[in-house]
Amino acid sequence: MSMVIAEHLHKTFGRFTAVKDATFSIDKGEIVGFLGPNGAGKTTTMKMLTGYLPPTAGTASIAGYDIIDKPLEARRHLGYMPENVPLYDDMRVYEYLDYRARLKGICGKSVRQQLGEVIDKCGLEPKRKNLISTLSKGYRQRVGLADALLGNPDLLILDEPTNGLDPNQIRQIRELIRALSENHTVILSTHILSEVEMICNKVIIIDQGEIKAADTPENLTTNLRAAGRVSIEFKGDPTAVVAELEAFAPVKKVILEEPEDGWNRLLVRAEPGTDTREKAAAIITAHGLPMRHIYRHIPSLEDVFVEMTRRD
Ligand SMILES: Nc1ncnc2c1ncn2[C@@H]1O[C@H](COP(=O)(O)OP(=O)(O)O)[C@@H](O)[C@H]1O
Ligand SMILES: [Mg+2]
Q1: Domains in the chain, CATH or no CATH each
Q2: Average pLDDT, integer, range 135-164
Q3: Which one of 42, 120, 199, 245 is least enclosed by Cβ atoms within 10 Å?
């Protein structure tokens, strides 16, 4: 079931287009990394999904509710942690969350119960009576997460949740998000690749307002141009080896580099997702030539990101 369906979401500020015709969907239970350089349009897209910013064109639905036709229902199904969590410094953690719960229309007995739950889930128990002004950035983020969790929404939209944290705090928040993802669909934005690799099972890459890719990290890397690349070093006359490799179907290009120390270096480009190592080794062995190295390039999400956001 789709938790989020964005259809042709478009946002302009004056003459500037911040998000162009963004169409994507997110299934229930997914933990999605919304990845893009600064200024790519991540916050703008998230604000449109949350209903804080009306799209110039297009629409989206959250848990089946259209954000334009059914804004209240759509909002009730999501919790949003904005980029800079606006907290009230002179309130205590408990007071602040109590105030937020009431603003969200949670009332009666369930306020206490929900506050207990979100405080517990976010590890805020030791800080519940502290003034927000005295909290570290990591704990402030936890308060933001706790706030987003009030009302137990199906979907959490977290804008750069680890921004500005130190490595230990980042790890703690990451673990917390991972734990939350067991009961909530999560979209988090980041410009940090490793973060996505560590916790997300789907990546949406956005650049200059355009969605460039949306898939699992595994599919993105195996479908990459670089994914079929093999390098080989062998000795002897390369002519026949090159010709036979070029005739092999998945191979697109064979590049022979100048030998440096008597060893030929071949770069074989082939269809993404294919592996030409076995064939290459067989050809070289059939010619009785010595081989000392064969390696298939394993693309990282960074390669994907570079290929998708390259300016040439
Ligand atoms: N209210 C606004 N008015 C004008 N331009 C804006 C506004 N909000 C965002 N932008 C521009 O839209 C682009 C995308 O911004 P944003 O969505 O915040 O990017 P990201 O979150 O990926 O860093 C940026 O170039 C930004 O300057
Ligand atoms: Mg942003």
Answers
A1: 2-222 (3.40.50.300), 230-296 (3.30.70.100)
A2: 93
A3: 120
